[in-house]
């Protein structure tokens, strides 16, 4: 069980019924309502409401946790199976900025998620790339696109919240083992997990002339196969497609 000790524990029924996940992302939201964590929890629990978040943050910085962060919360569409969601009180148009108290709490939750789950201290580079972001960042994080958490808060995220987060970690990126999904490491795919794979291969002496482009083509497949052969593997075990053991030896964690 993963619970943030500074949060009031306000569990939803879904906490015991929804699938477990391995979080690799944290996404910040705004609720379009000036609600406390308890009021937000009550809303998620209303009949007919089919979404929920892991956390809720009030205007005063008070935080409630509704779901264990190893349990799926349905607030991020295609990212539900890997993302922690943090809702925050806002005006009804999601047009106001986060308060100083909210920023303090959001930074603290981000630091906790980084240390608890190994989420990399970086802004997500794609919808599947491990890291931190805001809901509007990628269309696939919502059903039909969204402006959440609003323009003002999106600007605060890059200009204030994320720099504060890094500063709290000591001003530099803490070394974190990248987390990848095997389904993303397939020939012909382009995504952030492939970038991490390519960087790991290069660090281990692999030859990818085009560099870490994020595209899994012939060069990457050849580099993976060469790395696998260096491990003494042959046949299907050196087919150029990484499995769990290949990733482990490249210092990559499999989600």
TrEMBL record:
It comes from the Bacteria. One of its GO terms (biological process) is peptidoglycan catabolic process. Residues 191-250 form the Peptidoglycan binding-like domain. Residues 23-151 form the N-acetylmuramoyl-L-alanine amidase domain. One of its GO terms (molecular function) is N-acetylmuramoyl-L-alanine amidase activity. Pfam families: Amidase_2, PG_binding_1. This is Predicted protein. It comes from Streptomyces viridosporus (strain ATCC 14672 / DSM 40746 / JCM 4963 / KCTC 9882 / NRRL B-12104 / FH 1290) (Streptomyces ghanaensis).
């Amino acid at each position: 069980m993963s619970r943030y000790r500074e949060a009031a524990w306000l569990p939803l029924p879904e906490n015991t019924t929804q699938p477990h996940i391995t979080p690799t992302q944290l996404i910040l939201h705004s609720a379009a309502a000036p609600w406390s964590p308890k009021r937000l929890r009550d809303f998620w629990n209303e009949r007919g409401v089919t979404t929920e978040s892991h956390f809720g943050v009030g205007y005063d910085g008070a935080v409630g946790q509704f779901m264990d962060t190893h349990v799926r919360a349905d607030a991020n569409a295609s990212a539900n199976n890997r993302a922690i969601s943090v809702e925050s009180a806002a005006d009804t148009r999601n047009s106001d900025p986060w308060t100083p108290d909210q920023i303090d709490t959001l930074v603290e939750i981000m630091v906790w998620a980084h240390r608890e789950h190994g989420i990399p201290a970086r802004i997500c580079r794609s919808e599947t790339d491990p890291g931190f972001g805001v809901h509007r960042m990628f269309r696939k994080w919502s059903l039909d696109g969204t402006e959440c958490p609003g323009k003002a808060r999106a600007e605060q995220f890059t200009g204030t919240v994320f720099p504060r987060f890094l500063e709290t970690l000591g001003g530099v990126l803490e070394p974190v083992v990248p987390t990848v999904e095997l389904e993303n490491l397939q020939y012909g795919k382009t995504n952030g997990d492939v970038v991490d794979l390519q960087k790991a291969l290069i660090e281990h002496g692999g030859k990818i002339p085009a560099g870490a482009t994020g595209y899994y083509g012939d060069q990457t497949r050849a580099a993976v196969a060469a790395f696998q052969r260096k491990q003494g593997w042959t046949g299907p075990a050196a087919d150029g497609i990484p499995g769990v053991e290949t990733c482990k030896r490249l210092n990559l964690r499999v989600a």
